[in-house]
């Protein structure tokens, strides 16, 4: 992956993140400070990482799905179901590890459902996952009986509040998932297979790439990541809120992946850049929150960022822009 | 020939270049009123490109088109239609979700008080279809009808729209002989009424039945224009398949090494509606050439052999043991490799680098867990780039930026990296420049001499005759012969391709 | 009528609606009254109008996620123009409809020229519209203009005590006009052609770019109209109006028998799709013991059944493939 193209993409996203962080510093001068209180780190950066953890997790699951020319609209609903399952399990008297396993198992099952619809029933991914997106929230509400299902189990709450080496657990979970997934797709041939199936399904099949198993796998992985994100969201408020947990986060995750440079038409993807995309989104949100500007500006800003990415990536404008930047850099170095 | 009065369409020096390949190179074409003109050539000869330029589906790079003495340059199909040039494509480009009448009148619907006049569309559609011997309700959806009827409907639409030039691109592929007869009668009527008709087909019988004049293209260039009556069948096939002067230098037949044991034995492998059962054996250190015209079933034999399409009869033995071919993965496990004909769609993975394209098949065979280590990937890619002389600045360049010939070499490298026992190549030298062309043929001979079994489909007859040890000839989707030893000459191959089949003059294949 | 991939889903939708309605009526005879029917149409008027636009978009092979946000923006813009700037409602209506049309044409142009997936372009448009609405005002602004009172008072009396209010009539009118446009004009045929296969449509002489732009323009105009209806319905403007209704509109269109891949379906089915959703809600309200989440699960199940059914029909009705 050490291609110059990847390098340029990473550089531009890091630049974008730096601009967002700089804006944060301008808004809140103490932003970069990190303090250690009771063995746990506090500070602006930690805050962005912590609050951004669920979308980072979703983006980690979403990026491979989008790379296969798919999409997973159900992750927000899966978050709600997983959270509801976890809360209901501890409330039924089971230990918290059981609850966590039950939630993750639910995520796997939801992903399997999506994967089977897409691969075996050959539904369009957008349609197949729309079904669970609509019905899933209802299922979560059924589990919580329409209430916010609160719990007191300290173990389950610890998913959000515990910390290790000073870092909040959600941050560690998100980073571990990102690094683990990154290693999984790049340390094995999965990344190559996913990108070839997404770019050219027919050529990939003739080269012997096992496409069906691969497709089911990416949806299952996305479901698992969503369940993890759902656990964090539930632990955060010590209760399962079927109405609001993960609401519209599927859109944030898709945006994060698109900002990370993956085309919705499939092909090249990067877990790292998708996570950067999620952090850029969270950084923008935090900045506007702290600046005292109306928080609704954030929606406009998101729209502008995505529009920029779309224009830069479009086949019509891409080559023109590339020529312009090439000319500018030539002039700059000359 | 010089009667300009009857000249409807005059094309001069028409050129269209795609990155790395000149699809059409200074081609002339003259269509005369009242004449049916055949446009012939193999895949990649430039027929489709020529038609796309005439109908404005693609822009013209160079050259002129005169219609009734007036220079035109169609911007899009609608513009061409406004000038009276309409095409029926080989692929049915109608909309299955609309009704028959809507398909016939789309874009030019009769209206009444601003609303589409469906009653009139239905009435006039019925009358129009009756001319083709079709008595169907035009209000029914197109998808309710067989491919043959859909094709006739597409032709009806075009006939109704075309004022001056009607282009029929392989319209008979899905028609039976009665339907073909109706179409031919209609074509003659239309020609008699002053229309110029350009007819593309790969059935030679049809060419001799219905056309007055023939233009042959090859490799994007004009081979020649002849009166049908003056051109013998054998000469026509030689015009279509004979080699261009530029490529002859490397075609000296080399001494073949003695073929080894049988690697793959194909016995009666076939699939209904695709290709009749065929039988062949492929030996170590041997090239089995496959010859035939476009649509003869030559590609389909490769698809069955590689498991890309499942056969419904017959079987394959490898080293004397029966094997199952449920998909390409089975074939790859057995040590088969396959370079498909459509490089862009079935071969390269456009966004990925040359390196990734080269290791893909090897990696797929090893499974996702055992990744080929990066250092080994680079070494493999660099080795093959050097060995096959793939012209690329480095192995990390996206393969889509390479020329066709270099893409083809990278695909060969993809399979060579798996050390295959049998390599299946479908048109390995199509659409690539002369230099790469010669290199690929030399490479095939080297591989053969190293002991590999090769199954090479090619429409370049002189090439096949030069490097093949035996030649399987396909005609009308069935095996038409197997030439061995001294029989493998261009003349004998062409003869086997042309020899008419008893009892079945033309029309739909088995 | 021939049973094929075009008519069968519609018949099934109608059947489901009749069965559902009969089941409701058996349990609660009051549901047969025109009062309930009038309310059903009035309460779902905005959704119906959105579904009219969405039917065009989905038939053309696209999707429009921005309609809920455009509707929300419209309610706020109306409130600001009427209460803040003192414009007459009719002037404000004209402005929002024209603005909606322009906005949608911009979305369509972006989809065509950037060759970007409609999903992500309309998602961006959704953020844009929602953000702009929130910038105008984050509070709910009541509209007290006298003209609103007059409009709300307009209604047709139905036999049996029911009333068909202006907004229900507007919805039915939108369906009628949309149906005529879709099924009886050359423009409608172009939408079907685009959804069937955009490349073939281009080869047959359809200007696909122009059609795409107009389809999204129409959808946004309908979203503007839905905003007007919602504004009349609640007599207020609120930026968070209609969060997520784009999904309800999509579900209504799909349950109505339109293929999400485009090209097959029709306007009548979408109306019934809206009514089925409304009926499920009404049933749950009447019942009292049923919980609200059953709505979502039922709609999800209906989606699954209808999409699965369409796949089956496509699978079995596909003409034998041409080989070679």
How many beta strands in the DSSP annotation of chain C? 4
Q: Main β-sheet of chain B: number of strands, strand sense, barrel status?
A: 6 strands, mixed
Strand portion of chain B: 25-35%
Class from secondary-structure proportions of chain C: mainly alpha
**Range of strand content of chain C:** under 5%
Unreliable residue runs of chain B:
244-250, 502-510
List the chains of the largest interface with their residue counts.
Answer: A-C, 49 and 45 residues
Instruction: Look up the CATH topology of the largest domain in chain B.
Output: Rossmann fold
CATH class descriptor of the largest domain in chain B? Alpha Beta
Q: What's the end-to-end separation of chain B, in Å?
A: 40 Å
Radius of gyration of chain B: 24 Å
Uncertain segments of chain C of ≥5 residues (pLDDT<50)?
319-324
- Assign an overall shape of chain B: globular
Q: State the share of residues found in helices of chain C, binned by percent.
A: over 70%
> By CATH's scheme, which homologous superfamily of the largest domain in chain B applies?
P-loop containing nucleotide triphosphate hydrolases
Q: Which strand order do you get reading across the main beta sheet of chain B? A: 6-9-10-3-11-12
Structural class of chain B: alpha/beta
What is the fold-level CATH name, i.e. the topology of chain C?
ABC transporter involved in vitamin B12 uptake, BtuC
| Assembly form of the protein | heterotrimer
Search tags:
heterotrimer; A: 334 residues; mainly alpha; ABC transporter involved in vitamin B12 uptake, BtuC; two-stranded antiparallel sheet; two-stranded antiparallel ribbon; 14 helices; 5% strand; B: 510 residues; alpha/beta; Rossmann fold; 3 domains; 6-stranded mixed beta sheet; 17 helices; 34% helix; globular; disordered C terminus
Explain this structure.
The complex is a heterotrimer of chains A (334), B (510) and C (324). With 334 residues, chain A is mainly α. Chain A has a single domain (49-293), classed as ABC transporter involved in vitamin B12 uptake, BtuC (Orthogonal Bundle). Chain A contains 14 helices and 6 strands. Chain A has a two-stranded antiparallel sheet. In chain A, strands 3-6 form a two-stranded antiparallel sheet. In chain A, strands 4-5 form a two-stranded antiparallel ribbon. In chain A, strand 4 and strand 5 form a beta hairpin. The radius of gyration of chain A is 20 Å and the shape is globular. Chain B contains 17 helices and 22 strands. In chain B, strand 16 (313-318) and strand 17 form a beta hairpin. In chain B, helix 12 crosses helix 13. With 324 residues, chain C is mostly helical. Chain C has one domain (8-316): ABC transporter involved in vitamin B12 uptake, BtuC. In chain C, the strands form 2 sheets. A two-stranded antiparallel sheet of chain C has the order 1-4. A two-stranded antiparallel ribbon of chain C has the order 2-3. The longest helix of chain C is centred in the last third of the chain and has 27 residues, at 208-234. Chains in contact: A-B, A-C, B-C. At the A-B interface, helix 8 and helix 9 of A face helix 10, helix 11 and helix 12 of B.
């Amino acid at each position: 992956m050490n291609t110059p193209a990847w390098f340029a993409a990473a550089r531009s996203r890091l630049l974008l993140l730096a601009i967002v962080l700089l804006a944060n510093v301008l808004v809140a001068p103490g932003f970069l400070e990190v303090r250690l209180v009771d063995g746990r780190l506090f500070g602006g950066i930690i805050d962005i990482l912590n609050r951004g953890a669920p979308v980072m997790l979703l983006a980690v699951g979403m990026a491979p799905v989008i790379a296969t020319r798919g999409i997973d609209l159900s992750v927000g609903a899966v978050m709600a179901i997983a959270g509801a399952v976890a809360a209901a399990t501890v409330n039924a008297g089971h230990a918290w590890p059981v609850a966590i396993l039950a939630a993750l198992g639910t995520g796997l099952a939801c992903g399997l459902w999506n994967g089977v619809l897409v691969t075996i029933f050959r539904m369009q991914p957008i349609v197949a996952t729309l079904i669970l997106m609509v019905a899933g929230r209802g299922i979560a509400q059924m589990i919580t009986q329409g209430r916010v299902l609160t719990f007191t189990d300290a173990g389950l709450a610890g998913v959000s509040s515990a910390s290790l080496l000073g870092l909040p657990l959600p941050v560690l979970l998100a980073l571990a998932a990102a690094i683990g997934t990154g290693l999984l797709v790049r340390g094995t041939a999965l990344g190559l297979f996913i990108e070839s199936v997404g770019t050219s399904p027919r050529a990939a099949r003739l080269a012997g790439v096992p496409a069906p198993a691969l497709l089911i796998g990416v949806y299952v992985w996305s479901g698992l990541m969503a369940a993890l994100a759902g656990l964090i969201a539930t632990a955060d408020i010590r209760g399962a809120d079927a109405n609001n947990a993960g609401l519209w986060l599927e859109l944030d995750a898709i945006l994060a992946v698109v900002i990370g440079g993956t085309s919705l038409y499939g092909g090249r993807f990067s877990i790292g850049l998708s996570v950067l995309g999620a952090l850029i989104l969270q950084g923008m949100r935090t900045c506007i929150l702290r600046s005292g500007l109306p928080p609704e500006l954030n929606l406009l800003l998101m729209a502008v960022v995505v529009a920029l990415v779309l224009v830069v990536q479009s086949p019509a404008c891409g080559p023109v822009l590339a020529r312009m930047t090439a000319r500018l850099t030539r002039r700059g170095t000359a | 020939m010089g009667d300009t009065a009857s000249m409807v369409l005059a094309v001069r020096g028409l050129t269209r270049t795609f990155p790395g390949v000149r699809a059409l190179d200074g081609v002339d074409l003259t269509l005369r009123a009242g004449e049916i003109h055949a446009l012939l050539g193999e895949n990649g000869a430039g027929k489709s490109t020529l038609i796309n330029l005439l109908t404005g589906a693609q822009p013209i790079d160079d050259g002129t088109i005169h219609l009734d003495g007036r220079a035109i340059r169609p911007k899009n199909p609608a513009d061409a239609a406004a000038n009276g040039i309409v095409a029926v494509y080989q692929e049915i480009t109608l909309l299955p979700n609309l009704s028959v009448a809507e398909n016939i009148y789309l874009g030019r619907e009769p209206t009444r008080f601003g609303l589409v006049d469906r009653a009139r569309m239905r009435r006039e559609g019925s009358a129009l279809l009756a001319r083709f011997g079709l008595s169907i309700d035009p209000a029914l959806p197109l998808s309710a009808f067989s491919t043959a009827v859909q094709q006739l409907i597409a032709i009806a639409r075009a006939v109704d729209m075309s004022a001056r030039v009607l282009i029929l691109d392989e319209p008979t592929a899905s028609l039976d002989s009665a339907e073909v007869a109706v179409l031919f009668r209609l074509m003659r009527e239309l020609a008699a009424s002053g229309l110029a008709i350009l007819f593309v087909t790969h059935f030679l019988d049809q060419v001799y039945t219905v056309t007055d004049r023939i233009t042959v293209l090859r490799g994007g260039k004009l081979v020649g224009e002849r009166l049908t009556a003056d051109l013998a069948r054998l000469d026509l096939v030689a015009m279509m398949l004979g080699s261009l002067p530029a490529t002859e230098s490397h075609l000296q037949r080399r001494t073949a090494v003695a073929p080894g044991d049988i690697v793959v034995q194909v016995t009666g492998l076939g699939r209904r509606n695709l290709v009749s059962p065929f039988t062949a054996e492929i030996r170590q250190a041997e090239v089995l050439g496959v010859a035939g015209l476009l649509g003869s079933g030559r590609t389909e034999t490769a698809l069955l052999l590689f498991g890309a399409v499942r056969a419904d009869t017959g079987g394959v033995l490898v080293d004397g043991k029966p094997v199952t071919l449920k998909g390409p993965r089975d074939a790859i496990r057995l040590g088969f490799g396959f370079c498909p004909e459509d490089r862009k769609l079935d071969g390269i993975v456009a966004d990925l680098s040359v390196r990734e394209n080269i290791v893909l098949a090897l990696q797929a065979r090893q499974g996702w867990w055992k990744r080929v280590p990066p250092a080994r990937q680079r070494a493999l890619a660099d080795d093959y780039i050097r060995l096959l002389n793939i012209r690329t600045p480095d192995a990390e360049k996206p393969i889509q930026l390479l020329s066709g010939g270099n893409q083809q070499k990278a695909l060969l490298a993809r399979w060579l990296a798996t050390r295959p026992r049998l390599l299946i190549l479908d048109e390995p030298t199509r659409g690539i420049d002369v230099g790469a062309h010669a290199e690929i043929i030399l490479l095939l001979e080297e591989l053969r001499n190293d002991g590999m079994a090769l199954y090479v489909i090619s429409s370049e007859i002189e090439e096949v005759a030069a490097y093949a040890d035996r030649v399987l000839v396909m005609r009308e989707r069935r095996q038409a012969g197997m030439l061995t030893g001294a029989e493998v000459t261009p003349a004998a191959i062409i003869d086997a391709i042309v020899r008419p089949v008893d009892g079945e003059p033309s029309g739909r294949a088995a | 009528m021939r049973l094929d991939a075009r008519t069968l889903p519609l018949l099934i939708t109608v059947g489901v609606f009749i069965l559902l309605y009969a089941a409701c009526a058996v349990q609660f005879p009051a549901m047969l009254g025109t009062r309930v029917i009038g309310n059903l149409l009035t309460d779902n008027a905005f959704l119906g109008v959105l579904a009219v636009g969405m039917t065009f978009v989905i038939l053309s092979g696209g999707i429009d996620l921005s309609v809920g946000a455009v509707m929300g923006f419209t309610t706020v813009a109306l409130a600001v123009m009427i209460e803040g700037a003192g414009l007459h409602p009719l002037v404000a209506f004209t402005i929002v409809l024209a603005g909606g049309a322009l906005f949608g044409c911009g979305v369509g142009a972006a989809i065509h020229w950037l060759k970007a997936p409609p999903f992500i372009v309309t998602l961006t448009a959704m953020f844009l519209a929602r953000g702009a609405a929130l910038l105008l005002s984050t509070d709910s602004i009541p509209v007290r203009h006298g003209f609103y009172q007059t409009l709300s008072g307009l209604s047709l009396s139905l036999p049996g005590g029911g009333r068909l209010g202006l907004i229900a009539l507007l919805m039915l009118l939108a369906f009628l006009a949309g149906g005529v446009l879709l099924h009886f004009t050359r423009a409608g045929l172009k939408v079907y052609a685009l959804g069937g296969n955009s490349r073939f449509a281009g080869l047959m002489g359809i200007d696909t770019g122009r059609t795409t732009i107009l389809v999204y323009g129409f959808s946004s105009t309908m979203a503007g109209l839905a905003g007007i209806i919602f504004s009349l319905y609640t007599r207020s403007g609120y930026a968070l109006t209609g969060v997520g209704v784009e999904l309800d509109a999509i579900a209504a269109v799909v349950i109505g028998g339109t293929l999400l891949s485009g090209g097959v379906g029709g306007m009548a089915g979408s109306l019934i799709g809206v009514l089925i959703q409304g009926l499920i809600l009404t049933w749950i309200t009447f019942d009292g013991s049923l919980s609200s989440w059953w709505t979502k699960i039922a709609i999800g199940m209906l989606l699954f059944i209808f999409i699965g059914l369409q796949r089956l029909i496509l699978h079995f009705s596909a003409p034998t493939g041409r080989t070679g």
